[in-house]
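=== RUN LOG ===
request id: a7f3
mode: sequence -> structure
chains: 1
length: 294
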Amino acid sequence: MNHDRVTREGQETAALYALGALSQHEARAFDEHLKEGCAACYAELEEFEKIMGLFGEADNPATPPAYLKDVLTVRIEKEASESGHTSGSVIPFPETPGNERANAQQTVSLGRILLPWAAAAALFIALAYTFSAWRSERQSLRASLDQEKERGSQALGDNKELKELLSKENAASNELSQINSVLKTGKWRLIQLAGQPPAPDSSAKIYWDIQASRWAVSADLPPPPAGKVYQLWFVTPSAKISAGLIRPDKSGHAFAVVQFPSNVGTVAATAITLEPEGGSDQPTMPIYALGKVS
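=== RESULT ===
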C-alpha cells in the first residue's frame, strides 16, 4: 500500500534499511513496497542514504573489529533458521553444565557486542526523525513567509492604485473648480484648439478669465516622449510668446492655469508645441494643437 505521507513506522524502516539492519525477510518486503511505487518511502530512503553517505566521508574510517565476523555469522544463521532453509537435519546434543555455562557466556558477549549497534541504530533513527521534522517545519515556515510576502506585495499594489485614483480624482476636482470659477465671473471667452498633423486627435480648450487675466487650459495630448515637454504659446501678429509648460498625465490629459500678461497686446491665436525638456524661447518643433482667438 502506497503512503500519501511519511509515517513514523515508514521512517524507522527506511532508516534501518539504509543501515542494513533489517532481516532478509524485512528487507525483501521493503523492496517490494518500493517497487509498488511508494514515493513517500522512497524519498525518505534517499534522505537516509544521503546521511549515511555523509557518515562514510569521515576522514579516519574505523577498522571493523575482529569479532564482527562472529556477529555476522550468528545473524546469517538466525536468518537462515527463520526462513526455514537449513542444510540437513541437525541432532541436538544434550546440554551439559559446562555447555550451559559457555552458552550463557556467549549470550552475554553477544549482547555486549550488539548493544552498541542497537544504540547507534536507535540514535540514527532519532536523528533522522528530527531531521525530517525540521525539514517539514522549514518548508511550512517558508510557505508561510511566501504567503505573507505575496499578501504584502498585493497590499502595496492596492495602496499604490488607491493613491493614483485619489490623485486623479483630486486633479479632476481642482480642474472643475478652476473652470467654474472662470465661468462665474461673467466676463470670459472660450478658445478651442484643434489637433494638427503630428497629432490629429489632440484638442484643447482655454477658458479665458478676462477680468482676472488668466487662462484655464484643459488639453488632451499624446503622452510626450522622454526628454520632451509640451509648451503653450501666445501668438500675436508680430511674435510668439511662451505661456508656460503643459505636462499631461499618463492618459495624456493636462490642466494648467496661466496668467495672461498685460504687455502681450492683441493675441491672434494660441498654439501648443512639443519642445525639449525645460521649454524653448521660441517654437522649435511642429504644432500639435492650434486655435484662433476671435
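=== NOTES ===
The chain has two domains: 1-54+68-79+101-184, 187-292.
The CA atoms of residues 140 and 207 lie 63 Å apart.
=== END ===
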